[in-house]
Design goal:
- The chain is mainly α and 127 residues long.
- The protein has one domain.
- Helices cover 47% and strands 9% of the residues.
- It contains four helices and three strands.
- It has a three-stranded antiparallel beta sheet.
- It starts with 5 loop residues before the first helix and ends in a 6-residue tail after the last helix.
- Bound molecules: zinc ion.
- Zinc ion binds next to loops.
Length: 127
């Protein structure tokens, strides 16, 4: 087996984190999973150009998938902390940086790290 490069590790981790959040939101349909794959392909190219950005890939993939879902299905992930009112999506912060979190701008709170949305929403994704 060849050793896995840090770049590949970052891409694998990003894929796993975003998939975990999709499962938590019960949005991990096969065509949604392919959106994640598409994003990982794009970001592989990106991070090959800029290896220092490897730590930012998870946040970027999360935002890519969020954008792609908005076009096809609507807002994701919906905010779990604000009860009532207009349903709204969480946003990734920082947009370009390490240690990305889902935040609700309405309530001004960090909801969960990317990849840990399940623990914030109370859903375990079991089905
Ligand atoms: Zn909210």
């Amino acid at each position: 087996m060849e050793p896995i490069s840090p770049l590949e590790q970052a891409l694998h981790a990003a894929r796993a984190l975003v998939l975990a959040d999709l499962v938590a939101g019960r949005a991990a349909e096969p065509d949604v999973v392919s959106l994640v794959e598409d994003s990982v392909v794009q970001r592989r190219w990106w991070v090959e150009q800029w290896p220092e950005g490897a730590g930012y890939v998870a946040g970027l993939v999360a935002q890519d998938v969020q954008d792609a879902l908005l076009d096809r299905y609507g807002r994701w992930p919906l905010c779990p902390v604000c009860g009532g009112g207009e349903p709204h999506a969480l946003e990734v912060e920082p947009e370009l940086g390490p240690d990305p979190h889902w935040v609700c701008h309405k309530a001004g709170v960090k909801v969960a790290p990317v990849g840990s949305l399940g623990s914030a929403t109370g859903g375990t994704g079991s089905s």
